[in-house]
Structures are given as structure tokens and as C-alpha cells.
Amino acid sequence: MSILQASPSMRDSRGYIASFAPPTAPPDMEQLPGPTSPSDAEAAANPLVNSLLNPIVRRPALVKIQGPFKDHQLASVARGVHSLQMLGLVSVVVIDRDDIPPFEPRDSMAAEAQRTMILRDVERTVHFLTKAHAAARPILATVARITDSGDVYVEAEGLDHVRRAVQEGEIPVLLPVALDDGCRARRISANAVLAALAEAMANEAPAPPAAPATARPKMDLTPARLLIINREGGIPSYARAGLPHLSINLSSELEFIERTWQPNWAYTHPTALSNLALADTCLTHMPKDASALIVSHRSPTALIANLITNKPAHSASLPHALLTQSEGRLSPDTPTLVRRGLPVRILRSVDEIDKPKLATLLNKSFGRVLDEEAYWARLDADLDFVIVVGDYAGAAVVTTEGKRDGLAICYLDKFAVLPSHQGDGTVDFLWVALRDETYGLGLLDAANPSVGSLSGVGRGKDLVWRSRADNPVNKWYFERSNGFMTSTDGKWKLFWCDAEQRMREIALESGGVVRVVEPTESGRTAAWAPAIESIKSVWAD
Known about the structure:
This protein is an alpha/beta fold and 541 residues long. It has helices spanning 2-5, 10-20, 40-45, 47-53, 71-86, 108-131, 156-167, 190-203, 250-259, 265-268, 272-283, 301-309, 320-325, 355-366, 372-382, 426-437, 474-480, 500-509, 524-533, and strands at residues 59-67, 89-97, 136-139, 144-146, 152-154, 171-174, 177-179, 185-187, 225-230, 247-249, 291-296, 336-339, 344-347, 383-389, 394-401, 409-417, 463-468, 483-486, 492-497.
């Protein structure tokens, strides 16, 4: 039921299956070995037998369980972690408590008392995991070492403890301790242990293909996810009045989040920034499609949803009112999904555009061939700005239409993301930047950190765009628009997003009442339609 509630799309399901389903049997069944005497070597060499005996490909995840938790809370966390284990994600757990300092005190008695608390939490976690039918084992040995300069690393011998547990499908539960140069075990920050594990596990290479069939293959320990389960929930956002960020693009937002941090959050979310820094460190060692989830213990089903979809609980590009006013939407316990992401730039002249890269992006995204001469001529005349994500992994081209008729329509001419970046958050990051530069402009929460952004200064404009009536993406557009209409010839859907600042002003003046069509909006769609419908195709095919 949790998987169904995650509502995975076809792309989400394919992504999960590609990562966790066993290799399929060879298409030519005649190539399979015939009846022979059974042996371990023959079974290991037969992919069909392997897929039957090992129906799930195990992949590791780094998990910080940041208590202290009451018994019923820890039981809920254990059930969530067990569900991940059943679906192929084996958690490598490091125990943490946010009610004691991250490093042990100099006083030996106080240090011993705190270490005893952490040890008991390890024992409790293993107990509740076992009670939830999850195979788990405590790792009481020190897997990490600490240098005189304070650097923490995990050596091969320590990593063996983790590998053996994960390879056998057991959940290793670790203490946040490390050996110093004097071979003394010291309690250190759980974040330091997790960061060291991320680096060591990512650098651990699997066995070479030429390994003997009888030898057990060396598992690829590269973490697929980072999960931080705490009592605080996600990272608070000043743009959402303290409710959590749904998704964070570290490449363009980290510094901005730190700069806009509110003093009162030091009490409500005391470890949020350190957890965000942990995500930033770990994700540098993880695959580009990996993500970190910062989640409250009250949202255990979010763990399953994230594993299947690798997406935030709700799209960050949905209208804020829809996220906050609808039942079951944004709440203080909504998790935050963190990605390395890509930098975002705003280009305001054709001269700034890398034309070959933009053309390649549009061709690959739309599966068509651009008439470049016609398109660049069009942008020379009508370009407003272009939003570029990364090295042209995605782009939104905005033009000004209807100038001949005395109009100034803010028109989304192209919205494109490379197929290789669809599903990794680029689409949402691109749309959020688009909103901040058009219909969201003039509001404090539009002060995004993108290079070349207007940073919220100005007045919002209605954003208009068209899409073919049979475009499967229209469902996504319906959710993000304030309205739509069908063109006179039935070929197009015309969408628009109302300028948010203007709508808020109307709501204030009218005591919160906003009509479907305000007097200032009368006749605007009739004026838009001819200008938009007359835009000529710039595709060569």
C-alpha cells in the first residue's frame, strides 16, 4: 500500500527496477546450460538461477538515526527501514543523539556516561529492527580512525565489517566512534563518521569481471541514498514561512539558504544546517542521481516513496497555495529532498547564449530538428531571457509577444530538459527559476540566488504558453497553471499563470475574495490568442 501511495510514474518505476531488479535471463533460452550435475560453480554461472535465488539486488544506503526516540517512535523508524530492506536498500546506520554534544567531553565520567547512552541506543535500534523482522547486527568495533589534525577516515579493515553485513542482507548499526593515533576509542560526530563512510564506500571498487565463478563477487558499496531520520523534519524555508523546503539544489541554493536562515530556527531546527552540510559532503561521493532525504520519524512512508520515485513528496514547482491549503499537503513534517543539482543562470541577450549547445538541447528534448537560422532571427527580435541549468542540461526560453499589436505578452517559448536529466530534479529546479523571473516576481520568496536573476525586484507578469492538444505533458502543465483554453482550430492548449503579486493585491483589497475573471483581466485571453496562435514553427522537419 505504501508503494501504491507513492504514485510512481512509469519513468520512476523503470528507474527503480533498473537499480534493484535482478538481471533478466538471456533472451535466447537455448544458450542456457543444459542438465548437469548441480554445483555451486554452475549455479553461480547461470544468470537465471541467480535471479531466482537472489530476486533483489541489494544496494546500500547511509542512514543517520538522530534521536533520542521513544520506544514507539523508534519502532516506527525500524518498520520504515525494514521496508527499505525488503525493497533492496540495505541501510548502513549510524546512531546519533541531538541532546548531547557531538564530541565527548574531557571529563572521563561524563564521556563514559554519554558513550553508554549511545551504546544503549545501538542496542535498542537493533532490538526494534529485529522486532520489525529486519535482519540487523550491531557493529561495536571502531570502523573509523581520526588523525591528529582531526580528519576522519575509514580504512579497509573497518569497511569489511560493513561489507559483510550488507552483502548478507543485514543492517549494520554503528557507533559514532573512531580510533585516534594512540588506538584509543573516542566518540566523535556521527556526521564525521557518515562523511568518511560515504567516501570510503564510494571508492570501494567491485570485483573484476574475470573473478572465478566460485568466488563471491565483491559488492559495490557505493551508497544509493543518504537518509537522515530526525525529530525536526525537513529544512525550513523562509519562502514558505518556516515550512520545509521540498527540494534543494545544492549547486545554486546552499549559500542562499545559509544567508536567509532565521534566528528562531536555531531552537526549532537546531541541526538543520549541519544536516544540510552533511548532505552536501556525502553527495559529492555518490552517483549523480543519488539524493539525500531529511525526514521526520513521523513520516516513515516517505522513505518508501523516495526509494521508488527518487523525488520529493510534492513537486516544488507546484503553486504554494496548492501545497499549503490542500489536505495532506505541506506540513512541518514534510521531508526535504536534497540533490547536488546544477547551477542556474539567467541570460538576457542573444549574445550570451551558446547557440550550438541550446540547439542540441532543443533537438534532443523535442526529438526534432531546429531551423536554427529562423530561430535565432526570432530571438534577436523577441527574446526576453533564457534560463540555463548546468551546461545546457535544461533551458527555458521566454520571449515578448504581441508587440506589433501594442501587447507585451510574457511567453514561454521553449521549456526543455535533456532526456538524461529528466527525473533528477532538473525540471522542477528550472520551473521554480522560471516562476521567480515571471509570474512570481515582486515577492520576497522570488529572491532566488540564480546568476543574473532579478532577485525578486520588479513586478510580476502573467506567463503564457501553448502546447499541442495531444501533448502528454499537458497534465503536468494543468497542475502548474491558473487556467487554459483550447485554440479555435483545436490544435493547441493555451495555458497561463497569473502574476501572483497582482492577485495578492486584489485579495487584500477585496477582503480575500478573488473572482474567476477580475475586471483588469477582462478580454486578455481574447487578446492573447491571436498573437500566440500566429507564432510560426521553427522546426525544420
